[in-house]
Amino acid sequence: MTDKTSAPAVTPVVDVLCVGAGFSGLYAAHQVAEKGWTFAGFEAAPDVGGTWFWNTYPGARCDVESIYYSYSFSEELQQEWTWSERFAPQAEILSYIRHVADRFDLRRHFSFNTRVVAATWLPGERCWEVALDSGETRRGRFLLAGSGGLSTPKDFDVPGLENFTGTTVSTSRWNIPLSELAGKRVAVIGTGSSAVQCIPLIAEVAEHLTVFQRTPNYVFPARNAPLSTDVVDEIKSNYAAIREECRHSLGGIPDRIPDAAAFDVSDEERRERYEKAYERSGFTGVGGEFSDLLTDARANETAAEFMREKIRQIVRDPATAAVLEPRFHPLGAKRSCFGTDYYETFNRPNVSVVSLRDERLDTMTADSIVTEARSYEVDAIVLAIGFDAFTGPLYALNVSTPESGRLQDAWSEGVRTYLGIMTAGFPNFFMIGGPQSPALASNVVVTIEQAVDWITELIGHGRAGGVEVIEPTAEAQDDWVTITEDTVNQTLYATTDSWYRGSNVTGKPTTFLGYVGGVGKYRRMCTHLAKQGYPGVEFDGTAVARRIGRIDEEIA
Ligand code: NAP
User: Fold this and answer.
1) Which site among 95, 130, 290, 539 is 20 to 30 Å from 430 CA-CA?
2) How far is the CA of 482 from the centre of ligand 1 (A)?
3) What is the DSSP letter of 39?
4) End-to-end distance of the chain based on CA atoms, in angstroms?
5) Closest C-alpha residue for ligand 1 atom 14
6) Are the beta carbons of 504 and 154 closer than 8 angstroms?
7) Average pLDDT over residues 44-57
8) How many CA atoms lie within 13 A of 402 on its CB side?
9) For ligand 1, atom 46, which residue shows the shortest CA distance?
10) Distance between CA atoms of residues 265 and 267, nearest Å
11) DSSP type of residue 8
């Protein structure tokens, strides 16, 4: 007879485990709870917010308009929340996320200050077991990664930072008041979106700011402004239609479909149109003015040169302007930046720029940054060097199965996914806004909502049939990889080194990390597959059809 008191405790299995309490995890918790399934979420931070919890550097704000960069799933929510500015600052976005968590009572689903350090598939039990940094484990039938695409900071890949004894702070883990940089000699390393936002504000307080720039990017004026009551009322009265437009768009914001190619119009008209687009700014600004700007290098060069002229007009010192002029990649092929007074900041007497293309960064000493040309004494270094995008946050989870090993081993030659949502060999594992999804080149909230809806429907479909194990076929995954590669190879994204392709991280295999055919088309493909009974997906080892083929051409 078994002594019940000494029987080993059976670990309860929840329906869904989820990593992260940012936009992805919170919406997943909401949808899973709506379905009546059990959910256990884990968040390393002490509260909700994800990237908006951590990225608190001066000037941090979203460069997708807040009226679009917000949840669409609840009409009540979008009616009761009012954005104050066109591009809300980080604190307001974080307040919004906290409001959503409170309003839908989502915090109860999460353990905070809790990091998932490993996730292991248990084939016998047909469930995932996650190991937490507390030493505890939890089990769940399905595992969702809502860990974000831009949440793992990139390591600084120049030796010598450890020698520096002054203040060091990273934009992605900002933890000092701006006043701590007041009156100091500050260096900012990097000139991507984060740097572009914080440089003008640091320049206002620093004794001297030296910007260390490796690759000059195209920085458009953000044209941020308060949202008037009239504009807000107008949006709220049309919100349902606006959201629908976003869901079926290219980038998750209302499309502005170009009506011409760059050389369809005269030089004069092209210039006039760029001027108007420059005033408009945003993702549908200069880079979206003509249909071929992201596919034809000659067409692109007309927009690129327009921007260089703007820089020469704004920046008074010709040598400084020349350093800031982007010449090493086509406009938009690397993520464009949107700033406020960015180029104007280089007219300040206390700001200078160092081109790391002309003098390589060699090392650091206790009080200096040393290039191959000279040494720059500084009191503080701001690292705005970016992220180990998409794969960094996933690999940190140490996801593994006995058959496939770790995810990072399965993807050692490059990322391979089915729709950017699942990957062969890792059953019941789902990525929200994962690599090879449209997350990279879209208003990510639109992509997140679509992914969570699709994933929960797929799980529901499986469970309705008594299925316990859901996994994509390797063949369908091959098809999706081909689709994502063929799509990007038609564009100039494919020609440029950037975090889009993993080339910002030393040793990372170069795979383009997104699907760039548009969120609308992607949604149509996903919906089509669901209606067909999910070709390319195995349910308890049985597939409806093993391939998805050129579904992108079928539903074009
Ligand atoms: P990023 O775009 O990857 O920029 C990193 C910068 O650091 C680049 O200029 C890069 O130069 C430089 N860098 C990296 N390693 C370096 C090294 N060892 N030495 C010298 N320079 C180095 O990173 P980010 O600015 O944090 O932005 C990442 C993404 O986050 C953005 O593209 C955007 O999608 C998102 N984001 C959005 C917002 C917003 O909505 N406003 C704000 C911030 C971030 P190279 O170009 O030569 O590699």
Assistant:
1) 95
2) 28
3) E
4) 65
5) 385
6) yes
7) 97
8) 9
9) 215
10) 7
11) P
Among 62, 92, 193, name the best residue to mutate to test ligand 1's pocket (greatest count of ligand atoms within 8 A of Cβ): 193
Report whether pLDDT(484) > 50.
yes
- The residue whose CA is least distant from atom 24 of ligand 1 is 386
Q: How far is the CA of 348 from the centre of ligand 1 (A)?
A: 23
Ligand 1 binding pocket mutation candidate from 156, 194, 211 (most atoms within 8 A of CB): 194
Say what the pTM is: 0.97
Contact 19, 116 (CB under 8 A): yes
Contacts of 464 (CB under 8 A, 6+ apart): none
* Atom of ligand 1 lying closest to residue 171 CA: 26
Residues in the chain: 556
- Rounded mean pLDDT of the chain? 96
Which amino acid, one-letter code, is at 190?
A: G
Q: How far is CA 156 from the centre of its chain?
A: 20
Question: What would the two tokens of residue 212 be?
Answer: 């260390």
Q: How far is CA 274 from the centre of its chain?
A: 28
Confidence of residue 2 (pLDDT cuts 50, 70, 90): very low
Place of tokens 């000037």: 59
How far does the centroid of ligand 1 lie from the alpha carbon of residue 362, in Å? 20
Q: How do residues 415-432 score in pLDDT, each as one tens digit?
A: 999 999 999 999 999 999
Q: Looking at ligand 1, which residue's alpha carbon is closest to its atom 10?
A: 190
Closest CA to 134 of 147, 116, 119: 116
Give the burial class of 484: count Cβ atoms within 10 A of its Cβ; 0-12 exposed, 13-18 middle, 19 or more buried: buried
Q: How far apart are CA 51 and CA 276, in angstroms?
A: 33
| pLDDT exceeds cutoff 80 at 130 | yes
d(CA 344, CA 323): 14
Q: Residue 374: is it exposed, middle or buried by C-beta count within 10 angstroms (0-12/13-18/19+)?
A: exposed
* HSE of 413, CA atoms in CB hemisphere, 13 A: 2
Nearest CA, atom 15, ligand 1: 385
Residues 6+ apart with CB under 8 A from 370: 160, 361, 362, 363, 364, 376
- Residue 284 confidence (pLDDT): 86
Return the residue whose CA atom lies nearest to atom 5 of ligand 1: 385
* Candidate from 504, 506, 510 with most ligand 1 atoms within 8 A of CB, to mutate: 504
- The ligand 1 site (C-beta within 6 Å) comprises 61-63, 150, 156-158, 171, 189-195, 197, 214-215, 335, 356, 361, 384-387, 499, 504
Is beta strand 399-401 parallel, antiparallel or unpaired with respect to 405-406?
Answer: antiparallel
Residue 7 has pLDDT above 60, yes or no: no
Q: By percentage, how much of the chain surpasses pLDDT 90?
A: 96
Residues of the chain by 3-state class (helix, strand, coil), percent to 5: 35, 20, 45
Identity of the residue numbered 163? N
pLDDT at 10: 57
Distance from residue 383's CA to the centre of ligand 1 (Å): 10
Question: Of all protein residues, whose CA lies closest to atom 40 belonging to ligand 1?
Answer: 62
Q: Alpha carbon of 11 to those of 124, 145, 232, 543, 553: distances in Å?
A: 14, 21, 50, 31, 46
Residue nearest to atom 28 of ligand 1 (CA): 386
- Tally of CB atoms within 10 A around 318: 9
pLDDT of residue 9: 52
